[in-house]
Amino acid sequence: MEIGWMHYLRQRQVLVFFVLLSMSGVGAELEPYSVAEEMEIGSFVANLGKDLGLGLTELSTRGARIISQGNKEYLQLKVQTGDLLINEKLDREELCGSTDPCLLYFQLLMEKPLEVFQAELRVEDINDHSPVFTEREMILKIPENSPLGIAFPLSNALDLDVGSNNVQNYKISPNSHFRVLTRKLSDGRMYPELVLEEELDREEEPEIVLTLTALDGGSPPRYGTAQVRIEVVDSNDNAPEFGQPIYKVHIPENSPVGSLVVTVSASDLDSGIYGKISYTLFQPSEDISKTLEVNPVTGEIRLKKQVDFETVLSYEVDIKATDGGGLSGKCTLLLQVVDVNDNPPEVTMSALTSPIPENSPEIVVAVFSVSDPDSGDNGKTISSIQGDLPFLLKPSVKNFYTLVTERPLDREERAQYNITITVTDLGTPRLKTQHNLTVTVSDVNDNAPAFSQSSYTLRVRENNSPALHIGSVSATDRDAGANAQVTYSLLLPPHDPHLPLASLVSINADNGQLFALRALDYEALQAFEFGVRAADRGSPALSSQALVRVLVVDANDNAPFVLYPLQNGSAPCTELVPRAAEAGYLVTKVVAVDGDSGQNAWLSYQLLKATEPGLFGVWAHNGEVRTARLLSERDAVKHRLLVLVKDNGEPPLSASVTLHVLLVDGFSQPYLPLPDVAAAEARADPLTVYLVIALASVSSLFLVSVLVFVAVRLCRRSRAVSGGGCSVPEGPFAGHLVDVSGTGTLSHSYQYEVCLRGGSGAGEFKFLKPIIPNLQLQSTGREVEENSPFRNSFGM
Q1: Among 124, 145, 168, where does a domain finish?
Q2: How far, in Å, are 19, 108, 603 from residue 26 at the CA level?
């Protein structure tokens, strides 16, 4: 057990220490407490609440707890009452060995706010161990001629207790020759010496047996005994003597086992067996017996195991030299262990805060202590962290450091930091220890959602099905968790607050998908705009906006509508063409429009059916109906033309119109009604027919003359301008003017003046002539220019 005493002569105490964020109250100490060893678990030590002047509930609310050294929970704190109790039985000899006083250091940590109080607990020794002799029987050989007063050292007894409970006195059993003296070693241990008080006579008493008793200072005292056997030998006049009384030796702690420490030497003036010397360690402790060994013949002392400066700083032992006659001498070996840098620094983490909120000023991230069991420069340390991190290492007291943030952190820039704390001592060679920390940064809602585009343009074909997905908007938030969860909503445009947005589109609040709620009509609404807001779920919530423009794409859902000639179910429109008309003569123009736009409104015209194919043609782009060749007497008088008007959509839509063309010899010729109309009129009024025939017969000569004159004039004029006529025998007309204003594919506008009079089978008409166009850029010259290639365009 004595080895344990030496082991604890230098014991490393690790003080767990915390630092207030405000750095106030650091290192406050409580009064020392004491407790006897071997007290039962739960025994009362002190009331910390009263010592600190705190209320009963304050210890609990502030999160008070006890931190002990070496992760040993010797004490426990009842936060409800403030009582400090024994958590496990304390054995002073096991904790401290021979060290006195035996102190256990602990800290009281209160987290809210952070505050630390240091305290120490003194473990008082009780007399629970009896003295024990390492040698149960000691044999002494004493010459019979030994002088009175000579002292013979005996083996001491060991007592694990300390102070007054250790060995204090020795007694010897009653006898007439010897008494015992109690001596004190430099380390405080007591050992006995046997003193000769009366001369020995080997012939009278060759052997003496005595009982040696060791007593400690406890109450009541404990004791231990050993037997001393004394053999009286013949006379040996000279005892061995060492060359020097003290040997002082220094040895490095890293010396290998078997290394030579020192060689001691003694001489004896006697000869023969009385001059033969043997060497032994005199009363070595258990630790010394395990550490050193001596060669009994040569006196060489070597290491049995490696020495450790951090465990034992020095050794002191007596070397005994005994001759063959039993006389002995002794010297003292003082062995000093020299420290080498064989221990890397140790880092003890006391507090760690993770995660830490972003955008916060200086925050204490960690508190740690640094220790190195070496001495001198070998035990001095330097602490550092990586230089590219936004953290600072600040020294505190007693080798404590705080790791704080250098500036507010941004989680979106970096969410996690791996910090390596490097501690290096100043020894040779330098040893270092690295401790890795992972610190995460918690999110704060400091980023508004950001749209991928500031504005979105979506195209939707008209006549869409309801609830059609027309597109999506997307916004991202650099924050995390609920702060990055984005919800979408619709906003009315400020320039059109009356837009029925709720009936047009809807948005999925979770993913930003947009849906058309009803079918859109391009002819009613070509485009509309609205805003979309993206808001996160942080507190407070942040948002941003984007503009969405929806363009309705035209679909070919409107067939061409024929404006002229009217198709109103009344009598058909008849176009008059003189037989003298040349090829390319403008008979009429089919005017149509399309409600669609773009290529869906590009109209083309086609002659589907004609009474006499090849006589008339239709220009595909403007709907003009012209003669394809010169008229002859063989051509029928009445012609029926079916014209198809078709748009350029996909699929194309079309409309058709029927034209009635009447060939006349001159414009004085009476109007010849269609057969069905004439028959109806004949049935309705036969008297009118007779009257017409009579008048024609009487005036035939006059009429022929007039017609010849008119025909000549018309032929001349038809070469300059083309014209047509429309006769509506029955029914009202929409108006005397028909305005076709450039809608569809017409290149310019036309106005036709028509004057029609209904009568009893005969009528007067005025030749159709173009009036001044709406657009003044057009001229008669251009019309002639367009008519000139007519024949070639038909290829007839």
Answers
A1: 124
A2: 6, 12, 94
Whether the Cβ atoms of residue 147 and residue 237 lie closer than 8 Å to each other: no
Contacts with 137 (C-beta within 8 Å, 6 or more apart), sequence order: 226, 227, 228, 229
Distance, in Å, from the CA atom of 249 to the CA atom of 316, rounded to the nearest integer, reads 10
Asked if pLDDT for residue 774 goes beyond 50, the answer is no
Q: Are 559 and 465 in contact (CB under 8 A)?
A: no
Assess if residue 742 is contained within a domain. no
Residue 460 is predicted with a pLDDT of: 93
Beta-carbon contacts of residue 716 (< 8 Å; ≥ 6 apart): none
Residue 372 lies in domain = 346-442
Backbone angles phi, psi at 782, to 5 degrees: -65, -35
From 531, 633, 520, select the one nearest 580 (Cα to Cα). Answer: 633
CA distances from 472 to 59, 92, 488, 500, 514 (A): 57, 77, 11, 20, 5
The CA distances from residue 761 to 660, 666, 671, in Å, are 18, 18, 8
Residues in the chain, overall count: 796
Question: 114-123, 175-184, 283-292, 604-613: which has the minimum mean pLDDT?
Answer: 114-123
Specify the residue for token string 């053999």.
231
In a domain, residue 789? The reply is no
Confirm if 215 and 161 have CB atoms less than 8 A apart: no
Rounded distance, CA 501 to CA 457, Å? 16
Query: What's the total number of domains in the chain?
Result: 6
Do residues 113 and 149 share a domain? no
DSSP of 150-187 = -EEE-PPEE-SS-GGGSEEEEEE---SSEEEEEEE-TT
Residue-wise pLDDT for 153-178, tens only, equals 888 888 887 878 888 899 999 998 99
Residue 21: inside a domain: no
- For CA atoms 43, 45, 48, 49, the dihedral sign is positive
pLDDT of the residue at 695: 65
3-state SS class at 707: helix
| pLDDT for 718 | 62
The residues, any chain, with a CB within 8 Å of residue 219's CB and separated by 6 or more, are 127
In 3-state terms, what secondary structure has residue 314? strand
> pTM value?
0.46
What are the pLDDT digits (tens) for 516-574? 999 998 888 889 999 999 999 988 899 999 999 999 998 888 889 988 888 766 556 78
